[in-house]
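This part of the workshop introduces the protein records we will be handling. A record pairs a protein's sequence with a compact description of its fold. Comparing a sequence with its tokens is the quickest way to learn the format. To make this concrete, we reproduce a full record directly below:
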Amino acid sequence: MSECSIVHKSWGELTTTELYSFLKLRTDVFFVEQKVDEEELDYRDLEPTTEHYWVMDDAGTAAYLRVLVDSTPEYRDAAHVVGRVVVRADRRGEGLAQQLLSAVLENHGHTPMMLHAQAYVAPLYAKAGFVAFGDEFMEAGIAHLSMYREAVVPA
């Protein structure tokens, strides 16, 4: 797994170039490649508590994810929700998503978290301590699993 510089910003800190770069990646993968037919821009990106994590390279954003804060947790006590995890096709298999998750866990691992994983990538999240719960379900035409990670209190 190669080391990459991870950028971490809130909405108010983003430049228009940064925003364009990760929205382009999300659109290229979710709409063009995966044919997702659900709304991508859901206004959650611009919430002041939303955190954006990404890796840049010469071609733009190579990998991205966001962390939302939900005041009414969907499952148990998981107020932090990881989502929109995406890696550009030419950079897949390098561990970039895992590096982004590690950065999130460094900042929020002391709090319970959840996510909706595309079923085929659930093992990636399991490596980070997320455990599947409930039945597999279809979201945007793709099989998903809900996953939860308990808070890990530092020793």
The chain has one domain: 6-149. The domain at 6-149 is CATH 3.40.630.30 (Aminopeptidase). Helices lie at 16-33, 96-108, 122-127. Residues 1 and 94 are 6 Å apart (CA to CA).
